[in-house]
Design a protein that fits this description.
By secondary structure, this protein is α/β, with parallel strands linked by helices. It has helices at about 10-20, 35-40, 60-70, 85-90, 105-115, 155-165, 175-180, 190-205; strands spanning about 1-5, 25-30, 45-50, 75-80, 95-100, 130, 135, 140-145, 150, 210-215, 220.
Length: about 220
């Protein structure tokens, strides 16, 4: 998952960034609204997290501006202002969720996970995915490689979809577990390895070019080799 985090309090930003990166998520940061707006327009994010009180452009103005530009990325507002009117203002600005400070980090992570599954997130935008000679249709729930239909179980389909949305990126077992199974990763289970092998047997077996590869000690990657 890729997250844009906009916060002008340095210690708070660094603490949140470290916690999110420990979940194997990619985090881009900005200390002001103007920089945050530029990053949001230039890159594709699964979730944007922004404080309300920011230099340059506050979080409400930022959210309104991005929504006017047609950006549908899920947006989480953070603020020490906890009054109902402030929450309403945030939601009316186009935000998807509002979290008052101080907050429990576990709740923060849970909110981000929930938002990443909503329509408009980078992981939910495209319905027809292509890579090399493989094609996956999330609406029709079909997979074809080199014109050949491949029948997958729902879990295998979800795993392949996640790989196809991040071609060339090494995905850790934790990332895969959280996005495909939506659970915290248990180091005592080999469920990810088992399903990767299931998927390989259906997607790569019989094809000269292999697409699903293990990066030892790091995870798995979709690339042509």
């Amino acid at each position: 998952m890729r997250i844009l985090l906009i916060e002008d309090e340095v210690k708070t930003l660094q603490s949140l960034r470290q916690g999110l990166e420990e979940h194997s998520w990619t985090v881009d940061i900005a200390y002001d609204g103007t920089t945050g707006k530029r990053l949001a327009e230039q890159n594709v994010y699964d979730v944007i997290v922004s404080d309300i009180i920011l230099p340059g452009m506050n979080g409400l103005e930022l959210c309104k501006s991005l929504r006017r530009a047609g950006l549908t990325t899920p947006f989480l507002l953070l603020s020490a202002l906890g009054e109902t009117d402030d929450k309403v203002a945030g939601l009316e600005a186009g935000a998807d969720d509002y979290l008052g400070k101080p907050f429990d980090f576990r709740e923060f992570v849970a909110r981000i996970k929930a938002l990443s599954r909503r329509p408009g997130s980078a992981l939910a935008m495209e319905s027809l995915l292509h890579y090399a000679d493989i094609e996956l249709d999330t609406d029709a729930k079909t997979v074809r490689r080199a014109g050949k239909t491949i029948n997958l179980t729902p879990r295998e389909f979800a795993l392949l979809e996640f790989l196809l949305r991040h071609p060339g990126k090494v995905l850790s077992k934790t990332e895969i577990s959280e996005k495909v199974w939506d659970v915290d990763f248990d180091t005592g289970t080999n469920v990810v390895e088992v399903y990767v092998n299931y998927l390989r047997n259906k997607v790569d077996k019989g094809f000269e070019c292999k697409l699903i590869h293990t990066v030892f000690g790091q995870g798995y990657v979709l690339r042509e080799e």
